Every structure is written in C-alpha cells, then in structure tokens.
C-alpha cells in the first residue's frame, strides 16, 4: 500500500486530537490547522524536494506533516516537537510513513538542525507564534545550510519580514532577512482555518537564501539594526550616535531616520564597522 493510502486510512486529525486529549496549549503557541487544502498548498509551495530533508517545527497532531509526506518528494521529514503529548499520537503516522518520518522530542530553539541530517535541507513549518521570530533569526545565522524556508507567521510578522524602506513595517527583521534571503508572502490564512482560531490573520512566507549573500557577520548587523530601530522615530544622529564617524565616511545623512535607509545601506555600515574593528 502506498504512503498516501496508508495516511488516508488514518483517523481524521480532529478525532486524534479528541482521542488523546490534545487541546491546544497557549503556552506553546499552538493553533491546529486541519484544512487539508491549505496544508497541501503549503507543502506544494516548496516545489521539487528530491534528495532533501525537510524539517518541520511543532507538528502538533500532524496536519502539515501528512501533507509533507503525501504532497512532496522529500527524502525524509524530521519533525521537532516540544510538547510530549504528541509523541504517542504521531506514532501511527510514523508507522505509515515507510521510514520517511522521524520525530524528535525537543525544543527547536535548542536543536541544531544541521547536525540531524546532511544537505540539502529545507524548513517547512507552521511555527509556534511565541517563538517564530526567534527561530527565524537563529536560522539566518547559517542560511546557506538550507535551500529554502516556507514558514507561517502572524500576518504582522510576515509583513515585517518582506517590508520595504519608508514603510511602517520596515525594521530590523526586514534588514536581517532580506540581506540574506529573497522573501515573499505566498499565502494568507484566515483565523477560521485554525482550531482554536487565533485573533489574527496568518501568512505563509517563502525565503530563499541568496547564493551571493554578504559575508558580513550577521551579529554585526543585529547590533547595528538594534541600535537604529530601537529608537526608530529618532534621527540617526541620536539612535546611532556611536557610529556617526562611519555614517559620515559613507555619506549617509545623520538626519535621516532608520526607515529611510535601504538594506544595502545597513550592510555598508556593517561592513565598514566590521573592517574597522578588525
């Protein structure tokens, strides 16, 4: 029997949740996505995944996991789940996967994914809202270890990732992400698609690491953007007072505000500071 047929024979997700008493835990930022059309779209958005290991963070009862197994050609799926309640509930899906699904009980923030499987790798996940941004930034420290990220965030966070300069959403997250990756929102998901429904719309974003991304340490860029956007309504001469000589050398007007600078501007500043500190 094919994997698709084996998975189709499993109990529906809602039934699994009820059988195992798996009501969503707010402490883990859990919202279950039961809509098979949506999970299928998310999985298919990755395109060809032949030879890949796909990492899923927070599989919960396994809705997106099922789609990754049936809608992609990934060699294996490694799901990292912090909530121990799901380990037993996911076992039938593991059994039906013909050894393509591996489940790891652990905290994704403390798990080095690159040590779990060789390249090529991708991350496809409906991220827990409470740690989604932190996880993304951690992966941006080694973006070229992955071919792509397809991630679900709150709509507000997704807009911050893809924002352009001189917009309200533009800030530190946009600079960090767009310096290293191309980023686009590919799907919006209404609250009604989830159980329990969150109070906000969600968005699926696709990030593809740039092969020619800058070699400037991301920690330098984190430090600079934290200073700039920590006081975003102030002019650079105030928020980036410690870097005024660098701004002047690069002909960046210190009377501008941080949202007036492009990603490339911040990169130029980081490069200059990085060289100066050597």
Give your account of this protein's structure.
The protein is of the alpha/beta class and 278 residues long. The chain has 2 domains: 3-209, Vaccinia Virus protein VP39 (Rossmann fold, 3-Layer(aba) Sandwich); 218-276, rRNA adenine dimethylase, C-terminal domain (Helicase, Ruva Protein, domain 3). 38% of the residues lie in helices and 18% in strands. The strands form 2 sheets. The protein has a 7-stranded mixed beta sheet. A two-stranded antiparallel sheet has the order 1-8. α7 links the parallel β5 and β6 (148-154). α3 (36-44) crosses α4 and α10 packs across α13 (263-276).
Give the tags.
278 residues, alpha/beta, Helicase, Ruva Protein, domain 3, 13 helices
Q: Nutshell version of this structure?
A:
This protein has helices at 3-8, 13-20, 36-44, 63-71, 85-89, 91-96, 132-140, 155-162, 172-180, 218-229, 236-239, 244-249, 263-276; strands spanning 32-33, 53-57, 76-81, 101-105, 121-126, 148-154, 181-189, 194-195, 202-209. With 278 residues, it is an alpha/beta fold.
Task: Tell me the layout of helices and strands.
Elements: H1 3-8, H2 13-20, E1 32-33, H3 36-44, E2 53-57, H4 63-71, E3 76-81, H5 85-89, H6 91-96, E4 101-105, E5 121-126, H7 132-140, E6 148-154, H8 155-162, H9 172-180, E7 181-189, E8 194-195, E9 202-209, H10 218-229, H11 236-239, H12 244-249, H13 263-276
Helix pairs in contact: 3-4, 9-13, 10-13
């Amino acid at each position: 029997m094919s994997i698709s047929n084996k998975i189709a024979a499993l109990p529906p997700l809602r039934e699994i949740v009820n059988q195992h008493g798996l009501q969503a835990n707010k402490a883990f930022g859990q919202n279950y996505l039961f809509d098979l059309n949506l999970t299928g779209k998310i999985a298919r958005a990755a395109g060809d995944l032949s030879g890949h290991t796909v990492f899923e963070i927070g599989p919960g009862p396994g809705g997106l996991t099922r789609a990754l197994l049936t809608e992609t050609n990934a060699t294996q799926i490694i799901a990292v789940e912090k909530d121990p309640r799901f380990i037993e509930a996911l076992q039938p899906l593991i059994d039906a996967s013909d050894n393509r699904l591996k489940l790891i009980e652990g905290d994704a923030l403390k798990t080095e994914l690159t040590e779990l499987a060789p390249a090529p790798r991708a991350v496809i996940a409906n991220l827990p809202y409470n740690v989604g941004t932190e996880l993304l930034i951690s992966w941006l420290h080694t973006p070229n270890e992955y071919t792509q990220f397809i991630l679900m965030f709150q709509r507000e966070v997704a807009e911050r990732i893809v924002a352009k300069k001189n917009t309200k959403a533009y800030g530190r997250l946009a600079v960090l992400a767009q310096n290293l990756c191309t980023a686009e929102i590919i799907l919006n998901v209404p609250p009604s698609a989830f159980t329990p429904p969150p109070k906000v719309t969600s968005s699926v974003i696709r990030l593809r690491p740039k092969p020619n991304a800058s070699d400037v340490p991301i920690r330098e860029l984190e430090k600079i953007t934290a200073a700039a956007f920590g006081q975003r309504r102030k002019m650079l001469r105030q928020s980036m007072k410690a870097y005024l000589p660098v701004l002047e050398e690069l002909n960046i007007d210190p009377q501008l505000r941080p949202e007036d600078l492009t990603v490339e501007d911040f990169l130029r500043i980081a490069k200059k500071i990085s060289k100066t500190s050597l």
